[in-house]
């Protein structure tokens, strides 16, 4: 990311605290003008958190368009952002394949023997049809280190034995080598899965039959189901079988929520396993939806009181230039120095998003005239073809009589 130093530093601090598990149940508000990178900042935080922390992203308006109540939609979003790490003990056989013999009987059935060893012991196993198929599928050969899950019979190849490395000089770079394990061949191993609370909810509440799973239409989930699951998970935690991983719920355009949703948020943030809630808004002092009161960012004061606020500021000319440059590289568009400068100027005067759009259009114009790179004239052409918000408003003011439904004193400024 470019610029936005203090906002990024603050975001970095929050990511660190989340990773250390210090701020579950807190909320952060990212406030700033449109196009100042609020959404981009939240996405960057999601990446920095990595795969093991659940991250859910919704837009404030989504709550109203789903076929369920607002609070149900919010509850689901919350539960998607809380992960459960479940530990399981699995019986496995792990070792290096010494020998693998497969005999084909005339009847068609296959029978075989496999010798496995660790540094300390060696055992010969009789293997049946099913195991044989799994071994063939994984292309297991003598000299491989393999792991077999005893309950499911799943075979996984961990790599080639180091001791065989010399024999396979010609095997290329993609071969992975592994150490021959020591100790017993059979052992118990701890496996860890991470699932979200919402996934557990859905699996346990298939009231409409399994077809609902294909439709992706999970509908509302009964509160009894959730309560049962909460109790079960609390038990697992006490027994040390499961661990709660509070993730992050990102609510973009949070001013679109109404007063009922805000009250729900307040309460949900207080519950034991609440994720960190990150919200973004581009509103100043405005109406709180569903009420007749105004407040900063359109959020009720009792919610604002719980938040820490990160603010983003408009970009400077140089920063806009750099962002546009990154963007053009990503879109495989070649911009001449001059056209980049013009685009950056346009970005500074109108908006970053408008300038970004123009890159794509200018590239099309350039391709049509079979040019090698976008030049000043291409940008000028698309600038006259497509209006930005300000010029469009000017135009509206000038010709308002000729439009349908035009109110002369209407305030067209989008803030
Ligand atoms: N610091 C940045 N570095 C790179 N790209 C950025 C940066 N800030 C914003 N952008 C880009 O600008 C556009 C608008 O940013 P966005 O995060 O959607 O704004 P907001 O959510 O504040 O309205 C996005 O395409 C985003 O990728
Ligand atoms: Mg945004």
Describe this entry's structure for a reader.
It is a single chain. Helix content is 39%, strand content 25%. With 415 residues, the protein is an alpha/beta fold. The protein has 3 domains: 5-81 and 247-312, Rossmann fold (3-Layer(aba) Sandwich), CATH 3.40.50.300; 82-243, RuvBL1 DNA/RNA binding domain (OB fold (Dihydrolipoamide Acetyltransferase, E2P), Beta Barrel), CATH 2.40.50; 317-397, Helicase, Ruva Protein, domain 3 (Orthogonal Bundle). The strands form 3 sheets. Strands 3, 4, 5, 6, 7, 8, 9 and 10 form an 8-stranded mixed sheet that branches. Strands 2-11-12-1-15 form a 5-stranded parallel sheet, with helices on both faces. A two-stranded antiparallel sheet has the order 13-14. Strand 13 and strand 14 form a beta hairpin. The two termini are 25 Å apart. The model has no long low-confidence stretch (mean pLDDT 85). The structure holds adenosine-5'-diphosphate (ADP) and magnesium ion.
How do the strands and helices of this protein lay out in sequence?
Elements lengths: L4 H15 L7 E6 L5 H12 L5 E5 L2 H4 L4 H11 L1 E23 L5 E8 L4 E6 L1 H9 L6 E6 L5 E7 L15 E2 L7 E11 H7 L7 H5 L7 H16 L3 E5 L1 E5 L6 H12 L5 E6 L3 E3 L6 E3 L4 H4 L2 E6 L4 H14 L6 H13 L2 H17 L7 H10 L3 H11 L16
Parallel strand pairs: 1-12, 1-15, 2-11, 7-8, 11-12
Antiparallel strand pairs: 3-4, 3-6, 3-9, 3-10, 4-5, 6-7, 13-14
Helix pairs in contact: 1-2, 4-9, 11-12, 11-13, 12-13, 12-14, 13-14
This protein binds adenosine-5'-diphosphate (ADP) and magnesium ion.
